[in-house]
Amino acid sequence: MHLNDPAPVTGSGFDDTARPLNDLAPDDTPRFEIVDGKVMLRGSVSRSSGCQTWPRRTICPQTGARDMEPQLFGPYGMLYSYASIHVSATRAVPYTLGYVDFPDGLRVLLPVHSADALAGTLPCDVLVELHVENDAVVAIPLPGGEQAGQATRATQGAQA
Question: Any bridge partners for residue 111, and if so which?
């Protein structure tokens, strides 16, 4: 197809290879595991690009390489940002979702269980620990996690 060719009639320009690509690893195992009593995310990392993902994938989302290997992430991360949701048609409210950064560079969106988050008084850059509740992974801010987060960010800034 060239730039000046007329647009194909709906469905006529695609063959069977245009179906959505199933790049998630088979979903026959939990998305987490317990190691020495700590919750770890079961993700993957690309051998060629270093791209990290959670949940596990079979294909690198950056390069398309089929070289993803299993990788565990956690049990601690840094709360990057969060939002409390007060209106939902599908879920009991209120609840909080937050982005958690892990030391190797992975960032994931997880439920955050904290009364401070619901009240809007939880600062960002707080150390969180992964827990499992109702068979789902959640992030829980640690007591004193604010000071740990500030120290971690200062160390990362000094290394840059």
Answer: 97
CB 71 within 8 A of CB 32: no
Please answer whether residues 108 and 54 qualify as being in contact, where contact means their C-beta atoms are separated by less than 8 angstroms: yes
The half-sphere exposure of 12 on its side-chain side, counting CA atoms within 13 A, is 6
101's enclosing H/E stretch is strand 95-101
pTM: 0.77
Report how far residue 110's alpha carbon sits from residue 132's, in angstroms, rounded to the nearest whole number. 11
Distance CA 59, CA 67 (A): 7
List C-alpha distances in Å: 116 to 46, 51, 62, 105, 139: 37, 33, 36, 26, 13
Q: Report the candidate in 94, 96, 109 with the shortest Cα–Cα distance to residue 31.
A: 109
CB 84 within 8 A of CB 111: no
pLDDT 10s digits, 11-34:
555 556 656 667 777 777 789 999
Backbone angles phi, psi at 113, to 5 degrees: -105, 105
